[in-house]
């Protein structure tokens, strides 16, 4: 998924000095951003107060949207470097095409995982015909320095491991939860899990104390560690937890994100994750001149042009403002 802002800000992320080393409650609300077609997203990361949770560096939540008479998601070809994209749906379908020739339709509770590595381009759109509702999340994972120039590849995993408890059903999207491990390839210690809580349910989720965590409420009415979290908001929890209490007044869908705090500092601008402003400038030039990223075949439309670079130098700094 692309960042379609016409004047994207440079985000400086990473480093351990600003990680909450103990349990905290930090409520993050989403910023409304138009995505393409009829889709508007709530952007939770990067946020005014926090830029990363483990290696998770970008979180968009969208829907549920009625697209029965709309084109739905229409994100034209665009480039990425230095990250993985994670497509996750509760309703609808997203058709993925990329410059490697990959073509896949991702459906609810299936993992669409693209590792950009040194360079890739892709498009995402609701197929025709498509389901009447579209609801999901798009996430990015920053690649560590040792792996960020790896060869790009795409994975589609229709079946994922599950963890169940009374009133709780968890699908492991990335990493490991309670002994169940996702087949999606990871490059740093992290976890992503989709949680379904039945109305009236209470559960305790096992966590790793060395990880920092956040929970996004995608639907329903839920309490996370005793804190009410509205749909479309995310609660940052810090580190130092061995379990997480959850409660639901109504049937609820949550997204658990966590990971070992990302030690390296990086620069994120538009669709690029790098380590310096020069790398961002080079990647932008390569996209605009038609080199390095390849071509996405089969999408009916022109690629997205890169926005203008900001006037100020792009420098890596910390995780929070």
From TrEMBL:
Q: Which residues form the Pirin C-terminal domain?
A: 193-292
The Pirin N-terminal domain, residue ranges: 45-141
One Pfam entry for this protein is Pirin_C
Q: Which SUPFAM superfamilies match?
A: RmlC-like cupins
Family listed: Belongs to the pirin family.
Q: What is this protein called?
A: Pirin family protein
Supply the source organism for this entry.
Answer: Streptacidiphilus cavernicola
Q: What is the lineage of its organism?
A: Bacteria, Bacillati, Actinomycetota, Actinomycetes, Kitasatosporales
């Amino acid at each position: 998924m692309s960042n379609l802002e016409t004047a994207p800000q440079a985000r400086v992320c990473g480093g351990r000095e600003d990680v909450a080393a103990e349990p905290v409650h930090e409520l993050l609300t989403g910023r409304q951003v138009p995505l393409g077609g009829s889709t508007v997203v709530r952007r939770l990361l990067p946020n005014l107060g926090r830029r990363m949770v483990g290696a998770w560096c970008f979180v968009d939540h969208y829907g549920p949207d009625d697209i029965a008479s709309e084109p739905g998601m229409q994100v034209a070809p665009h480039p990425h470097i230095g990250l993985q994209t994670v497509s996750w749906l509760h309703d609808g379908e997203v058709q993925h095409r990329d410059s490697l020739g990959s073509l896949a339709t991702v459906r609810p509770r299936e993992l669409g995982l693209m590792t950009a590595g040194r360079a890739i381009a892709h498009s995402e759109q609701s197929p025709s015909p498509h389901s009447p509702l579209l609801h999901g999340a798009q996430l990015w994972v920053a690649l560590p320095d040792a792996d960020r120039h790896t060869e790009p590849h795409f994975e589609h995993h229709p079946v994922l491991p599950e963890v169940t408890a009374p009133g709780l059903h968890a699908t492991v999207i990335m990493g490991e939860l309670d002994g169940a491990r996702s087949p999606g390839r990871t490059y740093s210690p992290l976890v992503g899990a989709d949680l379904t809580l039945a109305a009236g349910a209470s559960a305790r989720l096992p966590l790793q104390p060395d990880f920092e965590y956040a929970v996004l409420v995608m639907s329903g009415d839920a309490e996370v560690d005793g804190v009410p979290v509205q749909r479309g908001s995310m609660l940052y929890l810090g580190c130092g937890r061995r379990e997480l209490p959850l409660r639901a007044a109504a049937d609820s869908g949550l997204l658990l994100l966590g990971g070992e705090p990302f030690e390296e500092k990086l620069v994120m601008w538009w669709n690029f994750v790098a380590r310096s402003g020069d790398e961002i400038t080079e990647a932008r030039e390569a996209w605009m001149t038609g080199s390095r990223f390849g071509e996405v075949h089969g999408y009916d439309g022109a690629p997205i042009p890169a926005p203008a670079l900001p006037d100020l130098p792009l420098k890596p700094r910390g995780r929070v403002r």
